[in-house]
Amino acid sequence: MRFLATPLLGLTGSLLLLAAVGCNNEPLLDTGNRLEPDDFEDKDLVPDAIVDTHFQVGVPAVDVLWVVDNSRSMYEEQRALTNNFTSFMKFFSDSELDLDYHIGVVSTGYDSETERGQLMVGHDHRGDTIHWIDPEVRNSDEAFREMALLGTEGPMDEKGRAQVYTALQTLGDTTNQGFLRPDAYLSVIVLSDEDDFSGDIPVSEDQFIDWLRGLKDTPEQVSFSSIVAPEGDACPGLAPSTEYLGVTAAVGGVIHPICEPSWASIMEDLGMSAAGLRSEFALSQLPNEKTIEIFVREPRQPEKEVAIGLGVRYVRARNAVVFTDDPPGPNARVRISYEALDY
Predict the structure, then answer these.
(1) What is the pTM assigned to this prediction?
(2) Bridge partner list, 62
(3) In CATH, which of 3.30.365.10, 3.40.50.12780, 3.40.50.410, 2.30.130.10 is domain 61-274?
């Protein structure tokens, strides 16, 4: 079960995608992997149809900060996280994206002097100590396991929000210097089975949201995703993590129930979002839903039609086509043909 939280401005909840929308079949972006003219031979479309064209282009650089709860109830979740890290890295290691990334980990143990704002330590393939994973680290799975398998002896009051602020702001120019880059997108991902107890330390929730949204040139360059207990009864026995959910709603990001059994799909979805690949494609006008046709052209592959209901659906409230299973891959072209709604 996946929830997409959108900021109050109504923009997409995951990282801003460098995509283009048009009303013809000409490429609007140079993706670095230019398609040949023959690649743009169109399938038969409805006469006088509107055609919105999107390109699946990821962000050039991203810094990912994992916030991992290390209180005594988190053993199984830490194991699930680290055992499925390969699924998260699927898009980061994709040669089509050529993504420049930093991936670091902090605990929720703000009350521990040895953990407060500290990026956890791992070792690369040479045995050197590292504080984050980047494209030069060849053993990313093993390094992340070292960083994120924190044990369950951390402070009982989880303070994930305080840890994010301390790691990136208080220690950003000293202990953790180099992790957060001014030109990179930022993706924060929290894993916790409890609510946040940061309170007003070191800043209030509203101040934290304002700070986080103001870190980059535009708020869309930041996301805050949560693997937590959501509202409702999705995770019986767990109280909703309302503090984390509130930040995700305000900043934008993806929400997954921590009790969800399919961790591979959770990690793949979060990796896709952090890498800047989207599953949602907006329409430029309101459509007659019965006339919607979707065509996906992957690089070096023939264009294929994707039927509504088979892993893709139209969401009227967002006026967008949403891929619910496999999203288009890097540098794919998505064309959505439809007749405009006749008022």
Answers:
(1) 0.78
(2) 101, 185
(3) 3.40.50.410
